Amino acid sequence: LYVPNDTYSLHNLSLLSALVVLVKGNPVPSALSELMTSGWTSGEELGTDGETGAPPKWEKVIKMLVHEVTTLRNQQFVEEFQKPVEEISSFSQHQVPSTPPHLSKTLCSTSNKEACLQEISRGLQVYQLLLQHVKAEYPQSTLLPSVTHQTTVLIGLVKDQMKVAEVVEDLSASERKRVLGEVSTGTEWERKTSVHAILRELRNFLVDTKRALRRMGKRGKDFQ
């Protein structure tokens, strides 16, 4: 075994030993690990939106609602149509005319906060009414009372952020009669499919609402 006797060689040997220990103890990060820790992946993709601390109250409510509405939709589909959840997309053609359209991306991506909040509030009120039809057709659901309550809570949170003069008024008696009339008639099959369509579209509306409110939060108009 050759043992170097000069100071220069001993110094190089020490550096080489330290490098071996460093590499063995702390592997050089791969390109993938660097990508995952470099902030390249956006917070929205990770579900954190790049924020720390407790999420605002509206976000907690929407998260709970999306989970409950999704579960309720799946349960109703399996029990009422005797089909596996994997076939749920085969019912996508069933629609209910009175369900609010998806939130306008143009409206809710601009700085027009009040107009977007009005659209959200109005849509949630219609869904709140349509949930009465869900209750009538699917009374055995144990999740529906919570969905109804949390929808009411969310409406209140949205209205609290609006200017008093621009708060959306509650649906009139004639509007309520029209909305419920569109789903309460028809055959048993049509009423069942309308329940499925309502729950499906409510979930979509909630996801749109979350995105819209997050955009407002990024512009310094966060809600609690």
Automatic annotation (TrEMBL):
GO terms for cellular component: extracellular space. InterPro entries: 4_helix_cytokine-like_core (IPR009079), IL-6-like (IPR003574), IL-6/GCSF/MGF (IPR030474). The keyword Signal applies. SUPFAM superfamilies: 4-helical cytokines (SSF47266). Residues 1-25 form the signal peptide. Cytokine with a wide variety of biological functions in immunity, tissue regeneration, and metabolism. Binds to IL6R, then the complex associates to the signaling subunit IL6ST/gp130 to trigger the intracellular IL6-signaling pathway. The interaction with the membrane-bound IL6R and IL6ST stimulates 'classic signaling', whereas the binding of IL6 and soluble IL6R to IL6ST stimulates 'trans-signaling'. Alternatively, 'cluster signaling' occurs when membrane-bound IL6:IL6R complexes on transmitter cells activate IL6ST receptors on neighboring receiver cells. Belongs to the IL-6 superfamily. This is Interleukin-6. It comes from Oncorhynchus mykiss. The gene is il6.
